[in-house]
Amino acid sequence: MDYIDQLTEFGLTRQEATIYVELIRHGSMTGYEVSKETGISKSNVYAALKGLTSKGAAVCEEREATKYLPIDVKVFCDNHLRYLDEIKDSLICNQPKKVEVADGYITIQTYRNIINKFHEMLASCDKRLYLMAEADVVSMFSNELATLASEGKKIVVLSDKKVDINNITFYKVESIDKHIRFIVDSDYVLTGSIKGDVDDTCLYSGQETLVNLVKETIKNKMLLADKEV
Fold first, then answer.
1. Closest listed residue to residue 157, CA positions, set 101, 110, 141
2. Beta 128-132 vs 154-159: how paired, if at all?
3. How much is the CA Rg of the chain, to the nearest whole Å?
4. In the β-sheet with 169-172, what is the strand arrangement from edge to edge?
5. Residue 138: how many CB atoms within 10 A of its CB?
6. Burial (Cβ within 10 Å: 0-12, 13-18, ≥19) of residue 68
7. Which residues are registered as beta bridge partners of 56?
8. 77-105 b/e with 16+ CB inside 10 Å = b?
C-alpha cells in the first residue's frame, strides 16, 4: 500500500490525498499553484481543497491570494482516530439488538479481514489454542500469544521456523506452504491460505465437524514434528 493509499484509509479521496501530499511538500500553496503542480483542473482542485479543510487536513490562510496550509500528518491522523473512537463508542452503545444465529460456515476473504479475524479469535481465547502457520504469520501475533501464555492458557504453535515466544509449546513442521490452521478452545476454527493479498480466503466456523477435522490434521502434524518447549 503506497502513501496515497494509506491516506485514503483516513477518509481522504485519492485526489484529496494527492493534493495533501503536494501541500506538505511545498508548505503552502494557492489553488492555482496546486493545479499547475499536479495537472488537476482548477475546479477539481478547489473542490478537493474544500474537502481537505473540512476533514481537518488543511487550513485556509487569507492573504492577497488565498493559500492552503497542510496540517501535520501526525496531528491529522491523531485527530481522525480520536473522532473514530468517539463514533465507535456511540455505535457500541446504540447498536441494535443482536439476532441469535446458529454457527455456520463463514468465508473470510482478503488478507486484512483474515488478520482481523485472527485478532478477534485471540481476544476470545479462554483456555487453549492451536495454531499452525508459517513463522512470519505467527510472529505477527507474538505479543498476543505471549500475553495469553503468561495468563496460563495453553498455547501450541506449529510452524516452519522457531518463533521466540515464552511459555508456549512449539513443533517444527515442514511444508506449511501459506496454509493456516487455527483452533480456539476447541470451539472455533479458522482454516485456509494467507499470502498477503486480496485473493486470500479462509473458512471460519464453530461447527464441530470442521473443528474436529482440523484438530485431527494438527494432531497428525504434531506426531511427525520435532517438539520444542
1. 141
2. parallel
3. 24
4. 105-109, 201-205, 188-193, 179-184, 128-132, 154-159, 169-172, 226-228
5. 23
6. buried
7. none
8. beebeeeeeeeeeeeeeeeeeeeeeeeee
Amino acid identity of residue 134, one-letter, is E
Report d(CA 119, CA 225) in Å as an integer. 26
Q: What share of the chain is helix, strand, coil (3-state, %, to 5)?
A: 45, 20, 30
Per-residue pLDDT tens, the chain, 229 aa: give them.
799 999 999 999 999 999 999 999 998 999 999 999 999 999 999 999 999 999 999 999 887 788 999 999 999 999 999 999 999 999 988 888 765 555 678 999 999 999 999 999 999 999 999 999 999 999 999 999 999 999 999 999 999 888 888 889 999 887 777 889 999 999 999 999 888 878 899 999 999 999 999 999 999 888 877 666 4
Do the Cβ atoms of 148 and 129 come closer than 8 Å?
yes
**82-86-91 Cα angle (round to 5):** 140
DSSP class of residue 85?
H
pTM: 0.69
Cα–Cα dist 18/38, whole Å = 8
**C-alpha cell of residue 127:** 483456555
